[in-house]
Amino acid sequence: MPRFVRSALIAASLALPALGGVGPVVANEETTLVSVNANMARVLRLSAPAATVIIGNPAVADVTIQDPQTLVLTGKSYGRTNMIILDSRGDPIADTIVEVTQLVSDTVTVFMGSQRTSLSCAPACQPTITLGDDGSYTSTVIMSSSMVNDAAR
Questions:
Q1: Where are the domains of the chain?
Q2: DSSP line for 102-132
Q3: Fewer CB within 10 A of the terminal residue: the chain, N end or C end?
Q4: Is the dihedral of CA 148, 149, 150, 153 positive or negative?
Q5: What does DSSP assign to residue 16?
Q6: Which fold has domain 3-101?
């Protein structure tokens, strides 16, 4: 198995399936586009058992085979890539486009000049990290989160 596929499978296996009430998606020959939010995962149910799953750009999305007919797709970065699913004979089960988008509900983006920050406001606004946020803001949020985690140990 190619290294990038193996690393994609390992990384996606750490994600939680079907976050935020999003149900499973059935993938088959007719599926042309599958959407997933960045930093979230989605369950895909297949019409036939998969043996190999290939993601064109593992920087955009990861996938893991949960069982032969269940995949977990994880959005990593905004954009589009393709996903090819093969059976044990190497025949294609699906060849689809994966689109990774931003979850916009309950998220507020604040611009201060050219610096961008993000807040998750559900129900109270708290700092969150979103791709494209200012680097110093991102570092501060990560440091604060690490301090809280360290104090909880």
A1: 3-101, 107-151
A2: ---TTEEEEEETTEEEEEEESSSEEEE--TT
A3: C
A4: positive
A5: P
A6: Immunoglobulin-like (2.60.40)
